[in-house]
Amino acid sequence: MPTLPAIFRSKRVITLVASTAVLGTLLTGCTATTSTAGTSTSTPSSTSTSTAPTTTAAGSVVAATEAFTATLTSDQLASLNQEYTLENAEAWSNLPQAMSRNRVGLQLSELDDSQLTALGTLLQAVTGTTAGEGYDEIQQLLNADDYLADNGGGSDYGSGNYFIAFLGTPSDTGTWELQFGGHHFAVANTYTDGVLAGATPSFRGVEPYGTFEQDGETNAPLESEQVALAAVLASLSTDQLSSAELDGVYRDLVLTPGNDWAFPADNEGVQVGTLAADQKALVLAAIATYVNDINDADAATILAKYESELDETYVSYSGGSSLTEQDDYIRIDGPSVWIEFSMQRGIILSGSHPHSVWRDSTTDYGGTQQQ
Fold first, then answer.
1. Contacts of 116 (CB under 8 A, 6+ apart)
2. Where do the domains of the chain lie?
3. Which tens digits make up the pLDDT trace of 344-359?
4. What is the structure's pLDDT at 214?
5. Can you tell me the distance from the alpha carbon of 318 to that of 320, in angstroms, rounded to the nearest whole number?
6. What b/e readout covers 220-257, taking b as 16+ CB neighbours within 10 angstroms?
7. Are the beta carbons of 5 and 12 closer than 8 angstroms?
8. Looking at residue 31, what is its pLDDT?
9. What gap in Å lies between CA 41 and CA 161, rounded to an integer?
10. Is-contact 321 154, C-beta < 8 A?
C-alpha cells in the first residue's frame, strides 16, 4: 500500500495532559448566559454571528472535488462515481474491509501520491480545523489503522483500505454525497443546492486507544471526546447520576451501521434543561467535539441549532462514569442530535477501545429518511 503523502501526515506533537486542562480547552469557546427564568444555558461564542452555509463555501468543496477527479484515470473515476441512492448511502461500516466488503467507491490503495495529495486537499475543505478534530482527527485515525497493520493486524488493516465515493455528481445544484471511510471511520456529507444538508452518520472509533507513535508522530485520537463526555458525568450529583443511569449493559452502540432508523421513541436519562449552567456548558462542549469534525462554518451553524434544543436534550449512561473500561457507555439524545460513545474489548490489541457515532434524527443521510 502507498505511504500517505505529507498532506495526510502533517507533523504534530500531541501529549496527553490532565483531563481538566483538556476540558478547559474544550470550553474556551463557550460562555454562559442567563435566561429570564433564572436558568442558565451555555452559548458558544463562535456561533454568536453564525449564518447558514453559503454556496460560496460549498463551491470550494466542488472545486476541490474537480481538482481531485482531474488526477484520476477513467477506471478510477468509474469506481469513484456512484449513483445517489439510499442503498449506496447506507453502504458504510465500522468494520475492516475484509469483514465488511459492502463499501462503494475508490480504494485509497489504488491512488498514487499526487492523487492522495489532491484527496487530502478535498478532505481539508470539508472538515474542521480544531486541533484533535476534523482533518487532524482523520490523520490520527489513519495512523491508528496503520499501527494495527504493523502490530498484528496485517494487510486487513491500514490506511490503504479506506474508500472515497461521490454519490451523485458534485455540484452546487441538486443533491450529492461525499462518502469517505473505512475501519472505525465514516464521513457522510450530503449537499443539496450548494448547502450542507447533513453531516451524519459520522462514525469514529480507534484501536489502539490512548497515546501511540506511528511513523514518528504522536497520536491520541478521540481523547477530547472521552474527556468531554466523562466531564459531563463527573459533574452530575448522586441523584442526577441515578436519573441518568440506563437499565442493562450496553456492549455496543444502538445506532450501529445497518441500524439506521432506530432512534428510540422515548428519551431516557437526565434532562439537560434541569441542569445548572456549568453542567449545560459541559454538555454543549461534548457535542462540539463531534460537530467540529466538519468545516468550521457549517459546524457553527449546526452547534447553534443543537444549543437551541439543549434544554430538551437528555444524557444517559451505563457502566462506569469514567468511560475508560469495557462496557462503559454514554448517550446524548436531543430533538435532533444523537451521540453515543461505547467502550469495546480489544480486537487486535489488549485493553479497551471506543466506538462512537454522531447521528441526527432530522438530517441523517441529508434528511433522506425512507426505508
1. 2, 4, 5, 7, 8, 108
2. 16-367
3. 999 999 999 999 999 9
4. 95
5. 7
6. bbbbbbbbbbbbbbebbeeebeebbbeeeebeebbbbb
7. no
8. 42
9. 43
10. no
pLDDT of residue 261: 81
| Residues 65, 81 contacting (CB under 8 angstroms) | no
Please, what is the angle between helix 277-291 and helix 19-27, to 10°?
80
Q: Measuring CA to CA, which residue among 158, 152, 125 is closest to residue 3?
A: 158
Residues in the chain predicted with pLDDT less than 50, given as ranges, are 1-2, 10-18, 31-56, 370-371
Q: Cα–Cα distances in Å, from 236 out to 258, 269, 335? A: 33, 12, 22
What is the Cα–Cα distance from 33 to 277, expressed in whole angstroms? 8
> How many angstroms separate the CA atoms of 248 and 252, rounded?
12
Lookup result for grid cell 454514554:
330
Cβ neighbours around 259 below 10 Å, total: 10
3-state SS, 5-31, equals CHHHCCCCCCCCCCHHHHHHHHHCCEE
Is residue 299 a contact partner of residue 262, using CB atoms and an 8 Å limit?
no
- Cell numbers at 200, concatenated: 451524519
Residue 64 in 3-state DSSP?
helix
Q: Is 345 helix (H, G, I), strand (E, B) or coil?
A: strand
CB 161 within 8 A of CB 181: no
- Asked whether the beta carbons of 105 and 93 are under 8 A apart, the reply is no
For the chain, helix (H) and strand (E) counts, in that order, are 11, 16
Q: Is the pTM of this model over 0.85?
A: yes
172, 55 Cβ separation under 8 angstroms: yes
Element (H, E) at 74: helix 74-80
Cβ count within 10 A of residue 176: 23
Q: What's the CA angle centered on 123, arms 120 and 128, to 5 degrees?
A: 125
d(CA 330, CA 351): 19
| pLDDT at residue 101 in the model | 74
Please choose, from the candidates 223, 225, 217, 175, the residue with its C-alpha nearest in 3D space to the C-alpha of residue 196. 175
Grid coordinates representing 97 are 474491509
Q: How far apart are CA 16 and CA 33, in angstroms?
A: 31
How many whole angstroms separate alpha carbon 75 and alpha carbon 80?
A: 9
